[in-house]
């Protein structure tokens, strides 16, 4: 089955401009290849600054690619001009993290959604009315919400409208950039359920970007772990997470999830270890070597490649 | 409803009875409506609720940080055996920092961007103890080393923007517990942080509370964090405490429907 969207050795470098200092290049995304099949949800996990959002934005064409190629259904969409990108925009959409800043404060919700529809499709006003009512109903809001302004909505409602905004033009591929991390605990599960239902009803494909390992088991089929702009682990079957041998970074991430059983406190009872907070800017050899509890001599000399250790399971680590 | 009152009085570092807060905004709604709670020495007490239920307002009222136009009433407020009733600003300044401290949600916002970390720690020390600048510097370095900063001297010279979020939060904890207060109020201290960093900070708060026999009022909306760190739990909803008890009891035998709904929202 051909991949819906494919990234081939994609890299992104930002130029850091500082006064009186020679311009520095910062590599945010470093040589990433990823294929996403239709109907699948891939979870992209990493800590802040690991380049996960930049990668998501590049797939949407919101960020130029420094090196590499991105294909959507076998067509290259790498660094297209705004005009040429437009037909693809309809099929590739993004749900942004902050729902409070993405709406124009002078537009009602209905006007915002209508503008997107009329810009991307040639339909009559009456038809667009129907479409807006339908999408609002699908995300669980009544049609009275059309006449409200963004500041009149609560955080959870705003996130629902945010999802409606991305899905109103029926895209095939959606990048969800931390869709629940700004939300309250009680609303989080509702929104994740909503995303799951919409995926089944509309046949969507998601790239689910998050830093929270506990949410991905709920929505994703496969998982990609990123660290400092590189993929360190890829797992085709998410139910294997935590069961089979894995990259040391993944196990640190798994250990950091708070327990849900008060009789089984694990974080506070963890043994004294060297602190993980000191991250050096650049290290020779393996990018994770300065924090790795299992590092050996060879890790400091050789940079590991992402290689397949079992079917559908790739790891970038010298020790395995 | 309250925790068993069998515990000795001097074990309580915070005792609130019937706290009411009414914001001077014209609406009749009470932001905090008759909250009573206690925090015990060396124990971590969690206050849980969704956003807007008034949990931060409780913390601000305890710290005396609410504005003049806001109406704050209580029948009893006791911080480390100090009755708080019509006390002067000067007395407040003594209690804040020496008896009770607070850490906030966003560590980068609570540090002054124009001063080095060292400057801010030394300022904290010198406003509470009569020591020379040199002595204060040494105390500050020692305090940072206590919080497992290996290169404390370098951190002292850094500006907040040069540090990561987790490091800033640890600097905040360092400043908050300079005078070894009996009570620490932590207002969502890990919400803005990564999971790996969150684990570090939680461990640090847990160890501080055990090592210095400090009571902690831990405000959060994340039940996972609560299960990990808390001894006692209060559930707050619409300005009222609706359920309280020991953490195992709340997680395994909740009584109120709202608590049950909260527990169901755990993924």
From TrEMBL, chain A:
It holds the Pfam family ABC_tran. It comes from the Bacteria. One of its GO terms (biological process) is transmembrane transport. InterPro entries: AAA+_ATPase, ABC_transp_ATP-bind, ABC_transporter-like_ATP-bd, ABC_transporter-like_CS, Oligopep_ABC_C, P-loop_NTPase. Keywords: ATP-binding, Nucleotide-binding, Transport. Residues 5-253 form the ABC transporter domain. One of its GO terms (molecular function) is ATP binding. CDD domains: ABC_NikE_OppD_transporters (cd03257). Belongs to the ABC transporter superfamily. PANTHER family: D,D-DIPEPTIDE TRANSPORT ATP-BINDING PROTEIN DDPF-RELATED, TRANSPORT ATP-BINDING PROTEIN. This is ABC transporter ATP-binding protein. It comes from Lachnotalea glycerini.
Automatic annotation (TrEMBL), chain B:
The lineage of its organism: Bacteria, Bacillati, Bacillota, Clostridia, Lachnospirales. The keyword NADP does not apply. GO terms for cellular component: plasma membrane. Belongs to the ABC transporter superfamily. One of its GO terms (molecular function) is ATP binding. Residues 14-263 form the ABC transporter domain. CDD domains: ABC_NikE_OppD_transporters (cd03257). It is a peripheral membrane protein. It comes from the Bacteria. Gene3D superfamilies: P-loop containing nucleotide triphosphate hydrolases. It comes from Lachnotalea glycerini. PANTHER family: ATPASE AAA-TYPE CORE DOMAIN-CONTAINING PROTEIN, OLIGOPEPTIDE TRANSPORT ATP-BINDING PROTEIN APPD. Transmembrane segments: none annotated. Keywords: ATP-binding, Cell inner membrane, Cell membrane, Membrane, Nucleotide-binding, Translocase, Transport. InterPro entries: AAA+_ATPase (IPR003593), ABC_Ni/Peptide_Import (IPR050388), ABC_transporter-like_ATP-bd (IPR003439), ABC_transporter-like_CS (IPR017871), P-loop_NTPase (IPR027417). This is Peptide/nickel transport system ATP-binding protein. It is found in: Cell membrane. It holds the Pfam family ABC_tran.
